[in-house]
Amino acid sequence: MLFNKKRTYNKLVIGALAFFITGFALAQVSGTDATMAADGSLFQRALDGIATFLSYTGFANVTIAHIVMIVVGLFFIFLAINYDYEPLLLIPIGTGILIGNIPFVAGNQIGIYETGSVLNYLYFGVVKGIYPPLIFLGIGAMTDFSSLLSNPKLMLLGAAAQIGVFLTFLGAIALGFTLQESGAIGIIGGADGPTAIFLSSKLANGLNGSQNLIGPIAIAAYSYMALVPVIQPPIMRLLTSQKERVIKMKPPRAVSKKEKIIFPIVGLLLTTFISPSALPLLGMLFFGNILKESGHTERLAETARTKLIDIVTILLGVTVGASTQADVFLTFDSMKIFCLGAISFVIATMGGLLFAKFMNLFLKGDNKINPLIGAAGVSAVPDSARVVHVEALKYDKSNYLLMHAMAPNVAGVIGSAVAAGILLSFLG
Amino acid sequence: MMFLNANMDEGFVILLVGMFIVFIALLVLFTLFTLMPKLLNAFSKKPKTAVKKVSNSSETSNKESYVSGEQMAAVSTAVYLFLEEAHDEENAIVTINSVAKNYSPWSSKIYVTHRFNNR
After folding, report:
1. CA distance A418 to chain B (A)
2. Cα dihedral A37, A43, A49, A50 sign
3. Distance CA A111, CA A82 (A)
4. Predicted TM-score of the model (pTM)
5. N or C: which terminus of chain A carries fewer CB neighbours within 10 A?
6. What's the domain range around A269?
7. Residue A292 domain flag
8. What is the DSSP string of A324-353?
């Protein structure tokens, strides 16, 4: 049975390869500039027609860069399906990469960068920063801030982790990017995909004298978010001692309904008064949370946290993926952005961990915090909180840190949005 | 190089100001929501007798009112199991309704049994 399956699979692979090689060979033989002769025999004209058709196929226009990007797209899909790394993001993005890198003849309103094409219309939501606030609305409607409210001091960990944003910003300047581009690259350290897309659509959109870096920044941000379970644990082990990792934290207190309702309202007013540029993100985040906590708009909250966020995730993922068109994406600058992105995640994690240790110097007894939760200050919700939880369980099977780690995690979302607002107000 | 240095200077300014503002924003939220339970308690109307009772009945220390995670989990499990077992109130009237049989050749017995000649 297994043997038969393997044979069928082999036949399929050979068939597909034969199809691509034949297509490629035919296209190359006919050439890419075939034109139909007006006169000549019917047979000749039919042959010319086939040659013209072949010249428009992907086989005739493919380059090595296209193939590289298609392999990258397939790799993303493989990671999502095989290892379950952020499949909700990596499958749309991976498929988007395939869509964006199908070779075609320019000028027929097909590509994502061609005005008037369908993909271009969908991409509008990315370029104008429409999708990220809608994602934030959904996140607000699904986030429970009670862990944060029960232990408000953990908010500071979310602030500390933002050092990753600002140090990466400096690093990008040092590597020769302009201030605007550096700001957009720095926000990768916030570990928040929508925020990264929002800021890069404002600062590095190719319209304000900067390069269009939305694609590389978004791909770097989402890739590293998916790789949080790989990036963070070694840093956690490096910066904490065995004794610190087994610190048990006090169970969170029960948070009243009133507090939960007041938090998004006060949070909205305070944070947007301090950083008005972050209004589209923070406004929608807290609006979503008001829908959830008010208790009277369950239908709206349900839509925001399910259907709406799903629709926007699909559109955002596929268009961001498609924006990685080989000629735009495969540049030396993209490589630099990927390096900076990795460093920014490391710095952000270190910032949170070290600040948690610093806070412990002033805390006593039961109030001490497990420094591992500092790593959750990066706003990859809920992945980094989950990583902290799993890591703590390795050292003490009864030390459940998930709820505690969710506090700096959601504070990180607020912190990174504020940081984006600050960068936007300085550089926008 | 001059250009890079100028950018670096501005970058440092943004780094310092940015981190300061992020901390201020979250520090303000932290302060406010640390005080929030006290503020809410101050404004909420409580019957005086209830307050007295609590203060008289026991010299409540934080230790006594503290419920451990294990205890909370045990109580939650008990409540959950009780609710799972609790049955809906049912209509106690017993009726005998004739069961309507919709004929279908798919369920017809005649097609699934062998027909033998009885004679």
Report:
1. 6
2. negative
3. 30
4. 0.78
5. N
6. 130-427
7. yes
8. --HHHHSSHHHHHHHHHHHHHHHHHHHHHH
Give this complex's ipTM. Answer: 0.80
- DSSP output for A43-88: HHHHHHHHHHHHHHSHHHH--HHHHHHHHHHHHHHHHHHHH-SSHH
**Does the beta-carbon distance from A259 to B68 stay under 8 Å?**
no
Residue A70 to residue A100: CA distance in whole angstroms: 9
Say how far apart CA A100 and CA A92 lie, in whole Å: 12
pLDDT digits (tens, 9 = 90+) for A230-266: 899 999 999 999 999 999 888 888 888 899 999 999 9
Residue B28 neighbours by CB under 8 Å, 6+ apart: A270, A274
Asked whether A358 and A215 are in contact (CB, 8 A), the reply is no
The tally of domains found in chain A comes to: 1
Residue A367 forms part of a structural domain: yes
Residue of B nearest to A398 (CA): B70
Residues of A with CB under 8 A from a CB of B: 148-149, 152-153, 155-156, 158-159, 162-163, 165-167, 169-170, 173-174, 176, 178-179, 182-183, 251, 256, 258-259, 262-263, 266-267, 270-271, 274-275, 400, 411, 414-415, 418-419, 422-423, 426-427
Structure tokens at B57: 């009945």
List pLDDT tens digits, range A75-127.
999 988 998 888 888 899 999 999 999 998 888 888 888 888 999 999 999 98
d(CA A256, nearest CA chain B) in Å: 9
Q: What is the largest CA-CA distance in chain B?
A: 115
Q: Could you tell me the two tokens for A262?
A: 């007041």
Q: Does some domain include residue A29? A: no
Structure tokens at A186: 């720095």
